[in-house]
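Structure in, sequence out. Go:
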């Protein structure tokens, strides 16, 4: 069959509220052209993020009922621990409330002034936690990642030669961990190959450095490896996932992505001494080690979610949905970061609206245009998010359409495609924006704009 169906059926529905064009016009103006300031009830299709926005399965909801809320030694923790041990091969499994909590614990323990932490490309919370500890976060993407049209199959790869140079220049004693993010959100949802992970491991071994994965989207990364990497097609995804984790000394995971839950995170650590220190800090700031700032029911939902995400019919459907949107956009002349990412499509907003200069935020203008035209919420990843006083202008002006897991159907996706193509056909009507207020940090969340 050519048609790849959603490998689930719907048991509970959540009605969408359709606003009129006039209502949306008033809403976007009241929000100062910032979609973070729009109440989500006024959004028809919400592609702001794939994080914590997925739909849980009937078995996950059953787990919610089964959850044991004992403070210490809950059977829900042991279930969660057993599942994560089986998938990752790690002995020590710590639950946290979300990805950045794992990052905060890790970098409070290994970061600090004078330290340097390399990554293929840090996600903003990882970078922020490293910098908060006083250390420096360094991105080492391969050169292909800088070009939206380059269709390198593993555009998330880390530049291994640049890593070696950085270690030699900085001195290995200043590098507490080498990180690699799978898939790389910052580089466009692009995967990292096993070959690249093995090469990073080799460099780490040479300099006796630990390798940590930011493994939020580990299953999507493994599916790409199965599809694209020579010799991997016949391996079960589970086996590829296991090899990815076997190459690492630790991992931070936001379960809000491939854990298929609305809240939760994991910290994996192989080193005994570091694990003990992580336990102490977890107890101090998140909660006891058998719940880590979550409810017992959340641990049951994660235990089930981490198993379901490895179902290959799910991953085939998941990765195909983004690819389908990419094909339609490219055929209509809309430039995106090619090839399609796993969890999202990144539109090249500078190419979409060449009449709007970076100083007038072409990405934000497109985000506002998509909401106004069709009630679609996306997010700017460009001069609004990364620019501002003291920051170099970002290399690309992007708009991300991130797909929640198991939430929208094929016709929702077709609607998004149709609406975006309509906005593209009238792109000369999109107007640049002027920023009216600018908070000192993370300005994209709260800044307000007016049209120029
Ligand atoms: N690492 C990566 C690669 C991420 O994409 C995220 C979150 C995190 C870490 C932090 O996890 O939110 O659970 O604390 N990304 C979301 C996004 C917010 O929209 O891309 P968290």
């Amino acid at each position: 069959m050519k048609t790849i169906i959603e490998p689930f059926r719907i048991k509970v529905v959540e009605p969408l509220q359709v606003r009129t064009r006039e209502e949306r016009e008033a809403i976007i103006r009241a929000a100062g052209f910032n979609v973070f300031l729009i109440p989500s009830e006024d959004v028809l299709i919400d592609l702001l993020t794939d994080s914590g926005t997925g739909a849980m399965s009937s078995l996950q909801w059953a787990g919610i009922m089964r959850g044991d809320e004992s403070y210490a030694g809950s059977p829900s923790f042991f279930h969660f621990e057993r599942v994560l041990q089986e998938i990752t091969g790690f002995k020590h499994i710590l639950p946290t409330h979300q990805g950045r909590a794992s990052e905060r614990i890790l970098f409070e323990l290994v970061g600090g002034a004078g330290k340097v932490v390399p990554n293929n490309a840090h996600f903003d919370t990882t970078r922020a936690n490293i910098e908060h500890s006083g250390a420096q976060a360094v991105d080492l993407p391969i050169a292909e990642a800088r070009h939206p049209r380059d269709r390198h199959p593993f555009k998330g790869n880390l530049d291994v030669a640049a890593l070696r140079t950085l270690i030699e220049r900085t001195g290995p004693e200043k590098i507490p961990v080498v990180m690699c993010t799978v898939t790389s959100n910052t580089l466009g949802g692009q995967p990292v190959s096993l070959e690249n992970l093995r090469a990073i491991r080799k460099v780490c071994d040479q300099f006796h450095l630990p390798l940590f994965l930011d493994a939020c989207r580990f299953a999507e990364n493994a599916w790409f490896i199965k599809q694209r990497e020579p010799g991997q097609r016949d391996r079960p995804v589970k086996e590829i996932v296991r090899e990815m984790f076997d190459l690492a000394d630790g991992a931070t995971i936001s379960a809000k992505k491939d854990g298929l839950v609305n809240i939760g995170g994991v910290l994996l650590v192989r080193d005994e001494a570091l694990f003990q220190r992580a336990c102490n800090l977890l107890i101090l700031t998140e909660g006891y080690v058998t719940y880590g700032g979550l409810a017992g029911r959340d641990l049951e939902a994660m235990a089930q979610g981490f198993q379901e995400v490895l179902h290959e019919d799910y991953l085939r459907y998941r990765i195909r949905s983004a690819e389908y949107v990419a094909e339609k956009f490219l055929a209509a002349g809309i430039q995106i970061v090619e090839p399609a990412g796993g969890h999202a499509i990144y539109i090249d907003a500078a190419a979409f609206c060449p009449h709007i200069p970076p100083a007038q935020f072409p990405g934000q203008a497109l985000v506002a245009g998509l909401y106004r035209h069709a009630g679609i919420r996306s997010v700017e990843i460009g001069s609004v998010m990364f620019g501002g006083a003291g920051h170099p202008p970002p290399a690309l002006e992007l708009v991300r359409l991130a797909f929640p897991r198991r939430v929208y159907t094929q016709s929702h996706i077709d609607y998004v495609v149709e609406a975006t193509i309509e906005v593209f056909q009238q792109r000369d009507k999109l107007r640049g924006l002027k920023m009216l207020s600018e908070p000192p940090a993370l300005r994209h969340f709260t800044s307000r704009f007016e049209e120029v």
